[in-house]
Amino acid sequence: LHKPFKKVTVLRSSKTFKPKKNIPEGSHQYELLKHAEATLGSGNLRQAVMLPEGEDLNEWIAVNTVDFFNQINMLYGTITEFCTETSCSVMSAGPRYEYHWADGTNIKKPIKCSAPKYIDYLMTWVQDQLDDETLFPSKIGVPFPKNFMSVAKTILKRLFRVYAHIYHQHFDSVMQLQEEAHLNTSFKHFIFFVQEFNLIDRRELAPLQDLIEKLGSKDR
């Protein structure tokens, strides 16, 4: 039996939107996560996202994808009361970008829905992928599937949309809760990671392009 991995959170609200995804303590992925956290503490995010020497790229992407899911889960959990059917009747990131949900299995044709409904679909779908041992093997020696990279890219592309929605529609609430530093650090880590391994198409990042450039220019 594995003990669940508990991470200390800096958020005042410990409410997560979905249950946290735990990486089993003592596993190699747990060690990788610890390595990631230690290098993050150094403050050099460009360096922190690089593939550690001798490590498997799929495993590094898997561990970080789980971590980003947990981070976004917590960040969105702090503002769910402000993201309602009334305030966010469509899933958008500013006036120019609107997202319709489809997962290819349960919902094949994209449907227009409210942001809370969309994010619920999205986070449930991500959770199902992370819990699927054939996609995200947690046991040492079990290989990643051939389509792992394309699944990881889809997960990260969709998680980006939650950041985009929070920034465009709920940043005032984030500031009221004094969580903007936490949101910015989390998003910067996410963006540097996806840039390092070219995981999200530039067009998908357009809703937050100005912010991405601003975050990147501080590190040149």
UniProtKB/TrEMBL annotation:
Entry binding sites for Zn(2+): C83, C88, H165, H170
Entry annotated with the keyword Metal-binding: yes
UniProt KW keywords: Metal-binding, Zinc
Cytoplasm as UniProt keyword: no
SUPFAM superfamilies the record matches: Mob1/phocein
UniProt cross-references to PANTHER family, sorted A to Z: MPS ONE BINDER KINASE ACTIVATOR-LIKE MOB
Protein name as catalogued: MOB kinase activator 1A
UniProt lineage: Eukaryota, Metazoa, Chordata, Craniata, Vertebrata
This protein's encoding gene: mob1a
